[in-house]
What we know:
Blueprint: H1 2-26, H2 39-42, E1 43-47, H3 57-68, E2 75-80, E3 92-96, H4 99-108, E4 122-125, H5 129-146, E5 150-153, E6 156-159
Antiparallel strand pairs: 1-3, 1-4, 2-3, 5-6
Helix pairs in contact: 1-5
Amino acid sequence: MNKDLDDLKSRIENLEKRTTDVEKAKSYAGVTQNGKPDDDAITFVVRALPEGKSENIVNKVNAVLKDGLKLKVTVKSAERKKAKQEGRPGIVVAKCASAQDRKAIMAKKKDLKDSRQYKDVMIEYYKSPEQLSQEASLRTLVKAVAKDTLTVRNGKVIPKKSSSSQPNGNS
C-alpha cells in the first residue's frame, strides 16, 4: 500500500514538473520566435460580465478597464463564449496589445470589488484547454489517491488544511 502511495506521489510530482516546464517554455518573456506576442501572454478572461442582446463586447471590456480599474489600456479583441449554465453570462476571452498591458490589468484587478458597477465581475489569467484538461486530470488523481490529505489549487498539489485548525466561532 505504501509502495502504491509513493508511486502515485511521484507521478503527481512528475506531472507538476512537466506543467511547470511547459509554462516556463511558453512564457519566456511572452514572445514567440517570430517576435510577436504569445497569445497566452496577452490574453485574459473576464467572468460575470453582464450580457446584453446586441452588445459590443470590446467596448464593454474597455469600459470595465477604464471605469472599474481606472486604466488607460484597451483590448484589441474580445469574444464571449457560450455559458455552460443557462441564465448566467458566458466568459469573455479578451486580448491586450502587449504583455505589459495584461500585467497592469492583473495588478489592478482587485480594485473591481470596490466598484459599485463591476463588483461581481472577475478578471483571471487565461488558461488553454490543454492546461484546463491537465488540471482536471490532476484533481481526479489527487481525489482518488489522497482526498483527505491533499488538494489542488491553481494547478498545484498542496496539503489540505485540517478542519480542526480552522476557527470554530463558538469560543
